[in-house]
Amino acid sequence: MSFQLSLGAISHLTAGRAQMGTSLSFHLMFAVVGVGLPLMMLVAEGMHLRTGDPVWRALARRWAKVLAVLFAVGAASGTIISFELGLLWPRFMAFAGGIIGLPFSLEGAAFFIEAIFLGIYLYGWDRLSPRVHWLAGFPVAISAALSAFFVVTANAWMNVPRGFTLSHGRVTHVDPLAAMFNPAWATETSHMIVGAYLATAFGIASVYAVGMLRGRRDSYHRKALALALGTAAILAPLQVGVGDLLGRTVAANQPAKLAAIEGITHTERGAGLNVGGFPFPGHAGTILNVKVPHLLSLLAFDRPNATVRGLDSFPAADRTPLAAPVRLAFIGMVGIGTFLVVLVLWYWLRRRLDGTGRAEKLTLAAIVAAGPAAFLANELGWLVSEFGRQPWVVYGVFRTSSAITTSPGLGTTFTAFSVLYVGLTALTIWAVRRIARQPVPVLVAA
Amino acid sequence: MALPSVLAVVLGLCLTAYAAFAGTDFGAGILDLVCGRSEGDRAAITFAIGPVWEANHVWLILAITVLFAGFPTAFAAVGTGLLAPLTVALLAIVVRGAALGARPNAEVGTRGQRGLSALFGISSIVAPMAFGMAAGGVAQMSVARAASKVPWTSAFSVTTGLLAVALCAHLGVSFTVCRLARSGDAALAGRFARRGLWTGGALAALCVVSGAVAVWRTPVFAHRLEDAGLPFAAIALIAVVASVVALNAGRFALARRSAVMAASMVVWGWFAAQAPVLFGRRLTIDAAAASGPALTAVTIAFALVLIAVVPALWLLHAIVGRPLREVGS
Predict the structure, then answer these.
(1) ipTM of the complex model
(2) CB–CB of B75 and A127 under 8 A?
(3) Is residue A360 within 8 Å of A295, Cβ to Cβ?
(4) Is the pLDDT at B203 greater than 50, yes or no?
(5) What pTM was estimated for this model as a whole?
(6) How far apart (Å, rounded) are the C-alpha atoms in residues B280 and B77?
(7) Per the CB < 8 Å rule, is A86 touching B68?
(8) Is A345 exposed, middle or buried (0-12, 13-18, 19+ CB in 10 A)?
(9) At residue B209, what are phi and psi to the nearest 5 degrees?
(10) Which residues on A lie below 8 Å from B294 (Cβ)?
(11) CB contact B75 to A (< 8 Å)
């Protein structure tokens, strides 16, 4: 009861959004690993089959163990979210369920397949032949990527809704395929999936870089680092391109979101790109801004003199009330992305020039930082997408304020779930650390 | 059969699978709390429920997805009306999974480990209690005269909550006993089997009591239950008695199968009694269904799910049951 009283000050809608946002950002951490780690595990086990080196197998086995814990937490937090859609946003569900039910059903299926084959993979280490065991990992990795794909097509629909007609506020003529393959599906899903692989790769690199900084420069650590940063070297530059394409999707379909992201207050013809340009409380414009002339118009619309609408050209009720956090999150995401690209290129360039393959301390320290940074970039990307879409839950069609439940007590449920997430985080970190401390059989034997 | 009805049957199948798998899982937690005298007992229970690990919540996710994609207005109404009990159930599910996952890592005999065990056991009771109460509320709503709040705290709902807990306990006991007997731990299997007489007795009693409370408090629903649900209820009762007899006779596999049969009959009896209503009085299967093309797409998707999932599940169980290969790492 006291919780309810102390939270009485925040509004019903804010409590609902806070609970959903907390749940999603918590789940995202685990979902990202659930998508990325199976791929890394498969590559490591494949390297074992190819080279016969037991260190690769030890790595794959260790990662599978960690994946089992993180997958279980991800499944639990995913269950919470599937319920919360109805518990917190029943009116949105009643509106959208019939339109985007298809990708959600397919997501459920992909998740189920992932769970089953992960079980086979985990129980199969000593029960299946090495090659069959490796093959059993493929459905895990593929369905993990597919479940991310399906669920993000539903989010893409919330940004660029298609595949239905509205007459007098009622949904008619639903085309589930047109809804799923809306104009944003390709760019949004690829940005998310590449982002998940990148975060996992940098996360792994970070863990093993810590070990190397502590002097454990054995084959186990070196191989893990090389595999992680090898994957990152391919994907980090690719993500820059994919991000640019997603930016164009936003520019074409969500002009108010673009204005918030790029920090464009007044409409400009031949708009320049704001580099820096931090919003600052109590300050009308932005600070520390460098404007690159015509670049935004060129990037967003392929024409150097294209017009980019400013935030103030939209009615206050139709643009995001969170323009400053959107801009900050975007700067953070792009900043981290740039750092990751530079870091991974530097690592390989140095390795090639140096020839000894030994990474120096400063580089290793930067790699340690890159892991959490890559996860943060994923979170920031979602903040940009979700805050930038406000005040709409379905862009231009359905307002978030119309979607919230009529049931009271959200202050209490928000508090309860927040406490739960803090506890779960602590427990997960503890469990993964216990796994990390177990001796590696190959190294013990050697 | 029309598409909405097909999808309603799929919903029923998902809930049945959830009741059987998660019920077993919850039941093992209850057994752990009530009869876990030593660390050895607890380790045996944890080992026994290995194959029905946490992933059985995918059945719940699938059920939610069917409801959400196939019957969006019913999903919205369930979410609005049952915010409190479903939130409690969710919290309990997550807490028990986390406690079970963390327990093997804690030092034996410490306060931390005892705390995790207590958390695991208590949340294993809370989750089915909350689900059962929610189900009782939905059942009563299906015959409510006017739109009103879901009566999930009524006397009838409390009995259905207790019924759900007893059902889980009985499922848990019969499954654990079955696994222990197969792995050669006959003494512990025998000890737990005697507990099964209690859980089975409680279950049979609660089946009768909930029927009586229905007659007393919600005569209209009782009438529906008598009309459409009677065969299911009768088979459920026979199955419970059969499982108790089988436990007593040491025929554990039969006991387990009968317990699963009882669980599915309870779910289908509830469904039959409130059909064609999904939620409230007006949201019937047809009225709540999504529009034509969406429904077709979702039905095809779920048909594919079942085609893909059933063989994969069979494969999983076949592989888990295999002996270890001699070739070491």
Answers:
(1) 0.84
(2) no
(3) no
(4) yes
(5) 0.89
(6) 8
(7) yes
(8) middle
(9) -60, -45
(10) 98-99, 101-102, 174, 176
(11) yes
